[in-house]
Amino acid sequence: MTSRSNPSPPALAPLAAHAAPGLDDVIAAETVLSHVDGAAGRLIVRGHDLEALASRSFESVLALLWRDLAPEPMEEAEIRSALGRARTHTFALLPPLLPATDGLAPVEALRLLLSALADAEGGPHHVLAVAAVPVFAAAIHRRRAGKDPVAPDMDLGQAADFLRMLHGSPAAESHVRALDTYLVTVADHGLNASTFTARVIASTKAGLFSSVIGALCALKGPLHGGAPGPVLDMLDAIGEESRIRPWLAEALARGERLMGFGHRIYRVRDPRADVLKGAVAGLRDAGGRIRFAEAVEAEALALLAERKPLRPLETNVEFYTALVLEAVGFARDGFTNVFAAGRMAGWTAHVLEQEKAGRLIRPQSRYVGPMPAPRTGA
Ligand code: ACO
């Protein structure tokens, strides 16, 4: 054979000598959406510090995140109306679907209901995805309590209607404000595990619903979005002030992790923790819980500094998330669904960004298994 008919394959770039387990410090995407500065304890969302966004509505943050990425530009008021219509559309899908969620954990029920939304029908679906989560999460919560779902009110904002659909009656303004702050606080957060998952799936052109369902599957783990329920379990297990230090010390001695502490990126306090602490402080009925939680937090930080001196471990977003969501009436086993209601903002924006500019995400692995026996003969 001539070299013309059997050309050498083009050279591939050399692989790194070592894999990076956990992909720590690997830059895997460029984004205009958000930046987590773990050394400074700063979260920037499209040019705004989180603290400056915290008083804005969830809809205004959606407008910010979707700007120049969604096919049609929409401002806050248009997004509010579009979400109201999309909640009503979603509610109409519920009757045949809801019974299939019986016996499932709330986050698995949400995954099942989201799977009924088809990538093939129209698109790009970002509004419908954001609208669907509170409708589904509230209906799942009520069904587990033996109650019928409550139809959305198109005229309300997303946070107010979420609580109304959950409780079956209008929520106090202070509770709406606290939930709105929560949804804004968790709306986007760099290339966290669930957002990365969404971008990987979006990069294959599988569609927005497939991408965000994959993201939800990543979110539900206790090392990511599954921690706030266990934070309350921990507070309940400790029970009283005199037991705080011994309880935490024993948990650490058993090699357990204290829920609501530590973060892959933040080496100082997670800025979201203070924003949520502020949100819960405004709720009249949460006072006793907050004082106890603050005592647990102070003791946990002191013990973590003693026992893990080489690793700065600070309070993360999940600690005060637990208090906010409990105070406004969510069941603790449904907290991850409320997280998904907020993070859907970021997931959809990242999917739109990935679909617009991205390339198929396909990293390599380093093979460390056995090699086959050498080939013999020709
Ligand atoms: N309690 C006790 N020790 C901890 C904790 C904790 N919460 N977090 C980390 N450590 C310790 C580890 O045991 C390890 O100690 P070692 O070196 O002596 O073995 C050291 O700190 C480093 O731990 P890593 O696993 O390398 O830290 P990583 O960056 O992977 O962990 C994570 C981040 C998963 C959030 C971790 O801190 C954790 O498990 N926290 C508790 C669960 C939690 O709060 N999850 C919510 C995270 S926030 C979010 O995703 C929205």
Q: Describe the strand arrangement of the main beta sheet, using strand numbers.
A: 1-2-3
Helical segment count: 15
Quote the average pLDDT. 93
CATH class of the largest domain: Mainly Alpha
Number of domains: 2
SSE run: EEEHHHHHHHHHHHHHHH
Write the topology of this structure.
Blueprint: E1 34-37, E2 42-45, E3 48-49, H1 50-53, H2 58-66, H3 76-97, H4 106-114, H5 126-144, H6 158-167, H7 173-185, H8 193-203, H9 208-219, H10 228-238, H11 244-253, H12 271-281, H13 287-307, H14 317-327, H15 335-357
Antiparallel strand pairs: 1-2, 2-3
Helix pairs in contact: 2-3, 2-15, 3-5, 4-5, 5-6, 5-15, 6-7, 7-12, 7-14, 7-15, 8-9, 8-15, 9-15, 10-14, 11-13, 12-14
The structure holds acetyl coenzyme *A.
Summary keywords:
mainly alpha; binds acetyl coenzyme *A; 3 strands; acyltransferase; globular; transferase; Cytochrome p450-Terp, domain 2; Citrate_synthase_sf; Citrate Synthase, domain 1; 15 helices
